[in-house]
Task: structure prediction
Amino acid sequence: MRHRPVLVAITATLFASQITTKQAPSALRAFYNKARSGGDCTGADALQTGFYNTEWSGGHTTYCTKYLPTGKGFYLKGPGSDLANMDIDCDGEQSRGDGRCKSSTDTQGQTRWGLKHLEKHGVRDLNANLHPYVVLGNEGGYSPTFDPRTVGVEPLSIVAVVCADELVYGVWGDTNGDDNEHPMVGEASLALATACYGPSISGNSGHDEADVLYIAFAGKEAVPARAKWDADSYEAFEESITAQGDQLVSQLFGDRSTATGGSDPHHTSAAPIDSDSDSDSDDDDDGSSKHSDKSDGARRSTIPRLCHTILVALIALVC
Result:
């Protein structure tokens, strides 16, 4: 009995630090598997080639449109079955952090787009501790370079990220500069990476496996209409862009299970991707067998998996 107050306090702390993610819907998981099993991205499917997932990986990662409708966006595709990894970006506003960004050795005080576009919203810049942003595009004194705006992707537009079979929405908030020897790709803010992989993530410790899918959407309809840029938590900001992100995913992939209620001022129709042909051959990445008790994309996980495990262990200990 004497353990009960401790258990209550720990439980409250875990719930207070909840992270919002959702299971990737079936059509998006099918696209994920198709992209990974489809080999290299070459020819007309490659918007630009020659980028590095890590400094030692070789310049084999591509801004790719393979299997996407023409003009609807792109994703990062490495060689073979690789997609991209997730290094950590801590650029931008430095307040409200929990100290994990202090280990970053290349932090800058501004992001590429937050500083220019958010002043009217009462925010000085994006905050890597709060805003789930993705680093896309390469600019500087190296080669190759790539500007997503040339294919219709707008600054601060919504980006869908599939990580650990979960779907997280971010925004295009920063670009890859020439502070490394090679043109790098595969980077996201601390807030987004924490939503994917938990609190073990820090400024110099990201996710090394090249199994992360970043999908950038082209068009002004991908610019957030109701984003709470001045939100005081990751959860509040993520919630403010989720409905619009769900609309973008359902329009592009033809899976209505992500769609949320209410009208969207940016709603447009788009031809869905035919992913059904690969659904029968999905491997373990699909996750449908492991999550058969969940409706596709509908159940929202509000406790990080690590915290949930700790909570179950504590309950078992007390009981």
About this structure: Residues 24-251 form one domain. The chain has one domain: 24-251.
